[in-house]
Amino acid sequence: MSNMQKKTDVILIGAGVMSATLGSLLKELAPEWEIKVFEKLANAGEESSNEWNNAGTGHAALCELNYTSENGDGSIDVSKAIKINEQFQLSRQFWSYLVNSNLIRNPQDFIMPIPHISLVQGENNVSFLKKRFEALSNNPLFQEMEYSDTPEKLKEWVPLIMEGRTSNEPIAATKIDSGTDVNFGALTRMLFDHLKSKNVEMNYKHSVKDIKRTSDGSWEVKVHDIDNGKIENHTAKFVFIGSGGGSLHLLQKTGIPESKHIGGFPVSGLFLACNNPEIIKQHHAKVYGKAKVGAPPMSVPHLDTRYIDNKKTLLFGPFAGFSPKFLKTGSNFDLISSIKPNNLLTMLAAGVKEMALTQYLIQQVMLSHEKRIEELREFIPNVKSEDWETVVAGQRVQVIKDTEAGRGTLQFGTEVISAADGSVAALLGASPGASTAVHVMLEVLEKCFPQHLKEWEPKIKEMIPSYGVSLTENPELFQEIFTLTEQTLGLSEKELAFS
Ligand SMILES: Cc1cc2nc3c(=O)[nH]c(=O)nc-3n(C[C@H](O)[C@H](O)[C@H](O)COP(=O)(O)OP(=O)(O)OC[C@H]3O[C@@H](n4cnc5c(N)ncnc54)[C@H](O)[C@@H]3O)c2cc1C
């Protein structure tokens, strides 16, 4: 065992899409800063960011019904949908900047155009969808959205879903062609390749064990080199804990007051993947339905065309489930070891409040393959069980904290937790997730580097022209940015010969 002391400007813990995005932003804003990355696995993008571990939806609220809710008076609240769409536009702009600057290449290896469709059945759901369409389609960000409740049209949009459908229940869908499928694993790997070429030090198979403040206000990070068993100590003025499900434990080790009274609740995921090329060919969309009553928002069922390893594939899910692990490669003690004296009451309160959710997740985890196929049958009436196999997806650790709604409230969004002096920040939670990585990492910059923002702003605006501007209120700017990013990222469907 050795105990080396190595100094650097920035340490990124974890090689997922969040660290990749923050590192890429910082390399453009402060190229002279020295950055080190520590990742416990052998490669980048192997946990939640991996293409098989998430659904790859470029979340822009084009089809996800849980981003729009019905008010008491029957009107539709679209504020969250607009917010998420604006955030996704920031990602599109930053990715386009990286492509235009030749910092990453071949955008079709990580982003592909795919229609985003919402599909519902039953009178109440159809009425909700129609109202949602009316509320959104006037907004410039959603103006290409189409609505239909005629079976002939729906057969054109989703032939596989309509074939063999005998129910007389009303059915309706909205479609928007400018949706995307994003391979966040490929994107993560591309970003780290780019960072490596800019002298960022990548340390794989290096697991961070502890983080402590030093007398000069920097942070000392204790790292275990898995191959040689040695312990190294590295210090940095700024540490970002981008460890996905591993972030909560590391945040707790910092001991900062902001890390107290926060807990995590893991929700696991499963997909059904189609192994029949004839079926895969018949579907070309991401089709989101409505979450079942009592189901958490992240388990909204969807049938997705995906592009993985330059191959078209078809996934259905995710089925939520319960596992005490915080990472797919984590430990069964993750949940219990995250309970500390300072968050015990918060966790207990959540345990009492979220009994129904826990029961739901346990019941989901017990589902047999045939039961999962029954759920898929609601999407594909003629589904054959043998055409589908189970794929284990990533873990999502939902944040539990004390809010105005009470002690131990489960959160479904992402949270940037940072020290008051901005010297350390962690990202907790996983929704909308990777799609909004650029927005979330800009938040990290705003919280942790306020002293540099004025100097950085012109560069941020060069990379992300809509930074600080509402695109909803500036439809011309939106159109300009949308067309430009569409061209740079190769998202104009006509340009693609892929099928
Ligand atoms: C089932 C599912 C479906 C999803 N669908 C979507 C979707 O459709 N669209 C979307 O935008 N988002 C989606 N998400 C969310 C998205 O995947 C995550 O928000 C995103 O990948 C998180 O990235 P990250 O970098 O924070 O974490 P990760 O990708 O998990 O990376 C964290 C890294 O930190 C490493 N690490 C952990 N602890 C340590 C340690 N102590 N030392 C060193 N390294 C460590 C891990 O090995 C890992 O490589 C989904 C997630 C799941 C689970």
TrEMBL record:
Pathway: Carbohydrate metabolism; tricarboxylic acid cycle; oxaloacetate from (S)-malate (quinone route): step 1/1. Keywords: FAD, Flavoprotein, Oxidoreductase, Tricarboxylic acid cycle. Its cofactor is FAD. InterPro entries: FAD/NAD-bd_sf (IPR036188), MQO (IPR006231). It is an enzyme of class 1 (oxidoreductase). GO terms for molecular function: (S)-2-hydroxyglutarate dehydrogenase activity; L-malate dehydrogenase (quinone) activity. It holds the Pfam family Mqo. It comes from the Bacteria. Its EC number is 1.1.5.4. The keyword Protein biosynthesis does not apply. Signal peptide: none annotated. The keyword S-adenosyl-L-methionine does not apply. It catalyses: (S)-malate + a quinone = a quinol + oxaloacetate. GO terms for biological process: tricarboxylic acid cycle. Belongs to the MQO family. This is Probable malate:quinone oxidoreductase. It comes from Halalkalibacter nanhaiisediminis. The lineage of its organism: Bacteria, Bacillati, Bacillota, Bacilli, Bacillales.
